[in-house]
Design goal:
The chain is mostly beta strands. It has eight helices and 50 strands.
């Protein structure tokens, strides 16, 4: 047995490889209690006799390692950079002090709630897989606000690994709100959770700009990215949330984006470019594609490009626009392999509900669009005529190998007589099946489908839209959504409902006990918090308190959206008051 100083963590380390009880003696001078966290130090003191410790080691061919992890406090209102930062009473004051410090695995950086910190948060150092460095908060109240001004980003990590960042708000940054990247080596292990990111400024020169940006250029390998519970809004740069690999040959691996919201952005909503094993789920985007004049391309709400095994599921996109073409909700774009778009709700977009593309001499393989609900897209007559609601297209020698459009439902009522399923030009190659099956199209257009024999149609139905459209009501009803239990994903769709129905709808989350910070951490906005008990689930109640919809588990955005349309009519966020008078 020996006691040594770990050269990487600067922490005292005890290692053993034994089969029996050992008793040994050493001086406190040889093993400093100050080097341990409080809980560890007090535990050791409880085991001690004067200057002698008896330790029972029941470890077989293994090691016991005690490492130090420090917690640093930042109070941008009353702290002092001349202090040590290691307690609430000796907190640092500025982000410059944080940026000048290299942190170690397991360290924490806590910002005081209710404060405003000016500048860029760029702490140095890297964690380890089992000991990430964490940025969080202390005290109670509103999220700490990082005001970046015109810095390149409000929060930045560069050539770093294994960080967890949660419960912060940022404003400013040009061209990024949050920026994670590097130039060499491995970039692994990033978690963003419960962040509010807004007002990144500048004019878009690239699609890899915006509010939350992960990008791994050639020469790096980025893996294991989790983006959870992010609200990103207001940017004149391009994207809301983007994860961007170097190329089809150098993809970012293992990416999850969930429980997140993007709105009011000039370009794309939530996108994955050159990602392998990616998932976008239970998230929403609206008011995307707001750039007045096209300068660098055309956007969609939620889509993937040059991705392998990427899935978009149980999301909602609506009120989508574009300065040019596209302006759609979902898109399996060219260069994708084994991508799935399933169980989503795309509605009220200027462009299409969903698309599958191939281009630039690349093959898009095994694309699946299934069980999606598409209502009232093609609000732009120009885009409706060009693209329809389900758009399949290739250009510049791109080819498709395997397309499945399965069990989707389309309510197609454009302002111009044009098909719902549009395939004006598409080239196919390979042995995978290309099939359209089990879909329902409700429409009054004269020719619902425009395609070729390259696509095989089976078991799909077309019916007049008058028979199946949810009715529109002009009744001045005010409905309530009541969610019992803290379901982060369901809250996303309470918020989308409030956007669509404005003053005709209210939403409440019922939790068993009051929390000072819950509404801030989840950025509840207009969703009210109430204390109570009950069976977990969601209810929709009309003005008289009658339950018109009820679910015991998570309800998909499409099912909730249909229930609201049947009772409140089409979404009209700014017309509700006038219609009710």
């Amino acid at each position: 047995m020996f006691c040594a100083l770990d050269k990487f963590t600067r922490a005292p380390t005890i290692r053993a490889n034994v089969y029996l009880l050992l008793t040994f003696t050493y001086s406190y001078d040889d093993f400093s209690m100050a080097e341990l966290p409080v809980s560890s130090a007090s535990s050791i003191r409880r085991m001690t006799l004067p200057r002698t410790v008896a330790i029972m080691l029941l470890v077989l061919h293994s090691g016991l390692t005690i490492t130090r992890a420090d917690t640093y406090y930042v109070d941008c209102s009353t702290g002092s950079d001349s202090a040590d930062g290691k307690s609430v009473l000796t907190a640092w004051r500025t982000l410059d002090k944080v940026g000048a410090t290299s942190f170690l695995p397991g360290d924490s950086i806590l910002l005081r709630r209710g404060t405003r910190c000016v500048g860029q948060l760029w702490p140095k150092g890297s964690g380890k897989p089992e000991r990430p460095i964490r940025i969080g908060t202390y005290a109670s109240g509103a999220l700490p606000l990082i005001d970046a001004g015109n810095a390149d980003a409000a929060i930045k990590l560069f050539n770093q690994q294994h960080w967890v960042i949660e419960a912060l708000e940022t404003t400013g940054g040009n061209p990024y709100g949050i920026f994670v990247s590097g130039t060499q080596g491995e970039l692994r292990g990033f978690v963003l959770k419960n962040l509010v990111v807004h007002d990144a400024t500048g004019e878009p020169k690239s699609k890899v700009t915006g509010l939350v940006v992960f990008t791994a250029p050639g020469g790096t390998q980025m893996d294991d990215v989790v983006i959870d519970g992010i609200t990103a809004y207001n940017t004149t740069e391009w994207a809301g949330i983007i994860v961007n690999g170097a190329s089809r040959e150098h993809r970012i691996r293992n990416v999850t984006i969930r429980n997140s919201i993007v709105h009011n952005v000039y370009g794309d909503g939530i996108v994955m470019f050159s990602v392998e094993d990616g998932l976008i789920e239970r998230s929403a985007a609206w008011f995307t594609g707001l750039q007045p004049t096209e300068t660098i391309g055309t956007p969609n709400a939620i889509w993937t490009w040059t991705c392998r095994r990427c899935t978009v599921r149980q999301t909602e996109g609506f009120f989508i626009d574009s300065p040019g073409v596209d302006g759609g909700v979902y898109d399996i774009d060219f260069g994708n392999d084994d991508n799935v778009v399933e169980d989503n709700y795309g509605h009220d977009a200027m462009g299409y509900c969903a698309a599958v593309f191939a281009a630039e001499k690349q093959i898009t393989t095994n694309s699946i669009i299934r069980r999606n609900l598409c209502i009232d897209n093609g609000r732009s007559p120009k885009l409706a005529r060009r693209q329809g609601d389900m758009f399949i297209s290739t250009w510049e020698d791109g080819v498709l190998d395997g397309v499945a459009i399965e069990n989707n439902t389309f309510y197609w009522s454009p302002l111009i007589d044009t098909p719902a399923v549009m395939m004006d030009h598409a080239d196919f190659r390979g042995s995978r099946p290309n099939i359209v099956t089990g879909n329902k199209i409700f429409t009054a257009v004269s020719k619902p489908i425009h395609t070729s024999n390259a696509l095989k149609f089976e078991s799909s139905t077309v019916a007049p839209i008058m028979d199946r459209l949810p009715p529109v009501t002009d009744r001045p009803s005010r409905f309530r959504l009541v969610l019992t239990g803290a379901d982060r994903a369901q809250v996303v769709f309470l918020q989308t409902a409030l956007v669509q129905y404005s003053d005709r709808l209210e939403a409440i989350v019922v939790v068993p006990e009051e929390s000072m910070d819950f509404s801030h951490d989840w950025n509840l906005g207009r969703v009210r918090l109430s204390v109570g008990i009950g069976n977990p689930g969601l209810q929709v109640l009309n003005q008289e308190g009658k339950v018109v919809g009820q679910w015991s588990g998570f309800v998909s955005p499409g099912e909730l959206g249909l229930t609201l349309r049947r009772n409140l009519g089409v979404p009209a966020p700014f017309a509700a008051s006038a219609r009710s008078q």
